[in-house]
């Protein structure tokens, strides 16, 4: 069986079909059994008593592994994140939230200059502006 982690690393696990999910966890993640989440074919393997054969896990199958933070481990390992400075009430603004409006403003400026200074725009420049506008429109509607 191949155990695949979130950072795209893989580890080969040797297991028998009679082994249970609990045995697999205790064998490859000793002391972290309660923190490890095993996912096979999009389903979380929660029942620790189920055998690999009953789950139809055969040779060379991939089981995705995710380590969740336990309540005690998370509070002991990481301090509580606090604000770095004074914050204003309202929605937090990050780079991602302003990307679409920024691109729209740049496109609007492009069209403004295309309409008012048409002598500076060649046919390929106009076609390119149309293409970029259509592409950004599809992306914006696809995301939202």
From TrEMBL:
CDD domains: Ubl_TMUB2 (cd17132). It is a multi-pass membrane protein. PROSITE patterns: UBIQUITIN_2 (PS50053). Its main location: membrane. Keywords: Membrane, Transmembrane, Transmembrane helix. The chain crosses the membrane at residues 93-113, 120-143. One of its GO terms (biological process) is ERAD pathway. It comes from the Eukaryota. This is TMUB2 protein. It comes from Machaerirhynchus nigripectus. The lineage of its organism: Eukaryota, Metazoa, Chordata, Craniata, Vertebrata.
